[in-house]
Write a structure and sequence with these properties.
Blueprint lengths: L2 E2 L3 H17 L19 H6 L4 E9 L5 E9 L4 E10 L4 H17 L8 E8 L2 E8 L6 E6 L3 E6 L5 E6 L6 E6 L5 E5 L5 E6 L5 E6 L6 E6 L7 E2 L7 E6 L5 E6 L6 E6 L6 E2 L7 E6 L5 E8 L2 E8 L5 E3 L7 E5 L5 E8 L2 E8 L5 E4 L5 E7 L5
Parallel strand pairs: 1-2
Antiparallel strand pairs: 2-3, 3-4, 5-6, 5-28, 6-7, 8-9, 9-10, 10-11, 12-13, 13-14, 14-15, 16-17, 17-18, 18-19, 20-21, 21-22, 22-23, 24-25, 25-26, 26-27
Helix pairs in contact: 1-3
Length: about 375
């Protein structure tokens, strides 16, 4: 708990930090009596007796101009010394983000790895005949809806810089791919060709989209400029259906789903075109591939005995492991640090989003009052 001026917004910030760290699975939190400000010297002996390795104190104070000053200090309890501190100013409307930022700072200093608490997710919700595109904090809170429609919206995905979304909308009576700039609300139809336009995926540099088009017959994968200029270039050529493209983090390869071998399986090919190699061989139904940020793993959906499960594959060594057990999962998406996978699931007739660490130890369920929720995409690091 931090020292605050008694205002609810300031007190809530402390709670957000606590929940972030607790949900990360990297910390075991220990309650300390009272509060520890950003200037007080901790009782190191007492904290060691309670099993603490580190302690953080801070304050959230309202300034004369209405903004808030956030100050934190992190101490090494074992060695009894200061690790470091941080101070910054935030608007009241941004205090929740500021709290996530503090949790990221603590995670970085103690774990040595960047936290994901300031990242955002996008997902689709449906309530009655109303569809919404929703952007939220990583924990599902602080929801904004940049698009609401009376027609289906699907397949949202983040641009690599986190400023734009690509998605599919049926508002014109057929599936069309749009690119939506969040800061301005402006959007543009970048794939509105004859037939179906679907399943957009960004290239790592944000300049190109891989999409699935039926403009030349069965669904095939094409590349097109993300600004809608020029003509699309066909990448796959098969007698089957090729869809659900995903670019490798280095931009050299393209993963996609194809039934060219008789059943839906995942394939990989050079993004400039060439021979496609089959990646999945276990089971007769493997779809929706998403490579990890480091390119070493692949998350996808496998059907096993009538159940749809998120599966993780080590691309170099080959082992596979299930990451879910509900049986009605879809749309896996990696966190930008590669430590978590988020996916849509259903249990007891209720839709939810689930975030799971790769070792399966920590699970975070994101419910919603917005009706059906589906198709999550985890945004990138942006600062």
């Amino acid at each position: 708990r931090f020292v605050t001026d008694g205002r609810r917004a300031a007190a809530d910030s402390s709670e957000v930090i606590r929940i972030d760290l607790q949900r990360s699975g990297a910390f075991r939190l220990i309650d300390t009596p009272g509060v520890l400000g950003d200037t007080a010297t901790p009782d190191f002996a007492g904290l060691r007796g309670r099993g603490a390795a580190s302690v953080v104190g801070g304050s959230v104070t309202r300034l004369a101009d209405g903004r808030y000053e956030v100050r934190i200090r992190l101490h090494d309890v074992v060695n009894g010394k200061l690790i470091g501190g941080e101070a910054f100013v935030a608007l009241e409307a941004d205090l929740r983000y500021a709290a996530h930022r503090v949790a990221d700072w603590i995670h970085q200093r103690i774990v040595g790895e960047r936290g994901i608490f300031t990242t955002r997710i996008v997902y689709v919700s449906r309530q009655g005949a109303r569809w919404r595109l929703n952007v939220a904090d990583w924990d599902g809170e602080n929801i904004a809806s940049p698009l609401a429609s009376g027609e289906p919206v699907m397949s949202p995905c983040w641009s690599p810089d986190g400023t734009r979304l690509a998605y599919v909308s049926f508002e014109s009576g057929k599936p069309v791919v749009y690119v939506h700039t969040l800061a301005t609300g402006q959007r543009r139809a970048v794939a509105d060709f004859r037939g179906s336009n679907s399943a957009p995926a960004w290239s790592p540099d944000g300049r190109v989209l891989a999409v699935s088009l039926t403009r030349e017959g069965l669904s095939q994968v094409f590349l097109l400029n993300a600004d809608g200029s020029g003509s699309p270039r066909r990448i796959t050529t098969s007698p089957g259906i090729d869809t659900e493209p995903a670019c490798s983090p280095d931009g050299r390869c393209l993963y996609f789903t194809s039934d060219r071998g008789g059943s839906p399986q995942i394939y990989r090919m050079p993004i400039d075109g060439g021979e496609a190699a089959r990646v999945t061989f276990n089971g007769s139904y493997n779809v929706s591939a998403r490579p990890s940020p480091d390119g070493r793993s692949l998350a996808f959906i496998r059907r096993r005995e009538g159940r749809y499960l998120v599966t993780l594959r080590d691309l170099a060594a080959g082992p596979e492991q299930p990451l879910s057990d509900g049986g009605r999962e879809a749309s896996p998406s990696f966190a930008p640090n590669g430590r978590w996978v988020m996916f849509a699931t259903q249990s007891g007739g209720r839709d939810a989003l689930m975030a799971v660490t790769l070792d399966g130890r920590v699970k975070h369920r994101l419910g919603s009052s917005q009706g059906d929720i589906r198709e999550p995409s985890w945004g990138p690091f942006t600062s």
